[in-house]
């Protein structure tokens, strides 16, 4: 047998020390990667928060005192309606009345309309949160000098008004309600399509299919589909759901006549197809992770394949399947490109009232607002991003709670 | 499968060969397993003992490439004939696996599930108690039937698996090295249990442990790799006493006395 050489006694200590050094260097590298990740994520978050709060310099185009004899907030509902009727053009008034009849609007809503349409806020300049906190005096001096008429106010752009109001052409009055509801509808339809179909496909691939050429081909395709750019799914959605299936997606076969195929249904189905590979792959992994010994035990007591899958494989794979659906939901909430192609409305102030209504979604809204020139729209875009993140977090938390509930006690 | 049967054999094989693809893993096995006796299958690793055992309740069906030549007869019916449903075979021939594999459910459900899916109509509580008593586990778990089966020790889990098997009242119980993952005391309890079970069931056990085979079994089949294809086959099948004291085959003698490479 050949003689192997290992470090001698005196070299051993050095050798071990060198090995520790090497390990230490790697540890530092891993720590650095973690830090980079944390820093970039916090920078993202801080940047968004920075935009969502801060000072605003604005003035009124019409002085509120001149609009009415009484102070505005003391006016009754009837008086506010009369005021709107007298000051607005007939066309504008009728349009508002068509959206929601004036009599049905609350006093606060009407007051908002008076500010929005008659008094009209003119935002001169907005300041970021960091500037507002650190350079308060400079901001005040600048505003006094540049806009002597203007009022300066610290504003929380992410107000409850912002969350509950529909879209408006004025940033100060715009909200995300329409977009948030649109996003919820989208995710709902997408998951309702992708979860049952995806889990079914995963069960078939994992438990029933034989490992032959065709099934391997299908498997490879599913894996690749998960990486196809979302815009391609948008094209698919446009061609199939919006155009070919227009009778269904516009709701005309259900007697709905006022829309074309560019509805929540088309967009939701497109999103469902888009997240389907994610659901399938995650469900497959979850099913694969169920130990074979459990299947054998079930078969050993005379269970059929379906009984084994239903009573043992699925319950044990459920947490993993739900993890996959969390990923799928996150993706469906965040995707923008396919929605643009499928035809999300860019300006819509009516809440979606069913799967066959026109829609917009949060990412579309954010995209629209960031593209505007007026700085105040950038602030509400930041606020909308926070709303989107919050929506995502809520959806994920719900799924995680569900998962913990379903998770076997054993 | 008619239940009337007059022979003393619970199950027998005729020229049974088992293939994985083209490889003949087990070749030409002829065994007659007596009812209400314990038959041990011994032999070196990789000689096809487990493959042979799993052929009896068609567990090999799950290996896609496996195929069988010859016959396994139970009450005169070939278990591999076309009109036999493997699900029914597995209900009548239960199996206990090498590693305890209770379902990740409660102790109660571990036993009731198999009974329920097989259409058990009767008092489930009684069945659970009876089965657990049959597996000598009742006294230890009677107060925690709703607790997880995973909270039990390895030996208890294995007895739970035996209880689960006898709950569906099979005629034959196959045991694939049931004590190999257990400590000596748990092993002893399983062996004692087997002597009890023998009164009602026919037991076939694969074991690596020759002392165990000598202690528990009535008959022993000695398997060994054989011939140019290196297929496993039964080289000697006889009374356990004879196999261990006065084997006919020289290879058996070498193996049971520990002289085998």
Strand order of the largest sheet of chain B: 7-8-9-4-10-11
Biggest sheet of chain B: strands, sense, closure? 6 strands, mixed
Principal-axis shape of chain B: globular
Secondary structure tally, helices of chain B: 10
Mean of the pLDDT scores of chain A?
A: 87
Write the element-wise H/E pattern of chain B from the N-terminal end onward.
Answer: EEEEHEEHEHHHHEHEHEEHH
Poorly predicted spans of chain A: none
Biggest interface found: A-B, 21 and 30 residues
Roughly what fraction of the amino acids of chain B lie in strands?
A: 25-35%
Number of strands of chain A: 3
Helices and strands of chain A: which structural class? Answer: mainly alpha
Can you characterise this structure?
The complex is a heterodimer of chains A (410) and B (261). Chain A has a three-stranded antiparallel β-sheet, sandwiched between helices. Chain A has helices at residues 9-52, 64-67, 77-87, 90-99, 107-119, 129-134, 136-146, 160-164, 177-208, 213-225, 230-244, 246-249, 264-288, 292-300, 305-334, 337-342, 362-370, 375-406; strands at 53-60, 121-126, 151-156. The longest helix of chain A has 44 residues, at 9-52. Chain A is 68% helix and 5% strand. Chain A has two domains: 55-155, no CATH class; 177-409, MetI-like fold. Chain B has 261 residues and is an alpha/beta fold. In chain B, 34% of the residues lie in helices and 26% in strands. Chain B has helices spanning 49-56, 86-92, 107-117, 124-134, 138-141, 154-167, 184-197, 210-216, 240-245, 250-256; strands at residues 9-20, 23-29, 32-34, 38-42, 66-74, 77-78, 93-96, 172-176, 202-206, 219-226, 231-239. Chain B starts with 8 loop residues before the first strand and ends in a 5-residue tail after the last helix. The model of chain B has no long low-confidence stretch (mean pLDDT 90). The interface between A and B is medium-sized, with 21 and 30 residues.
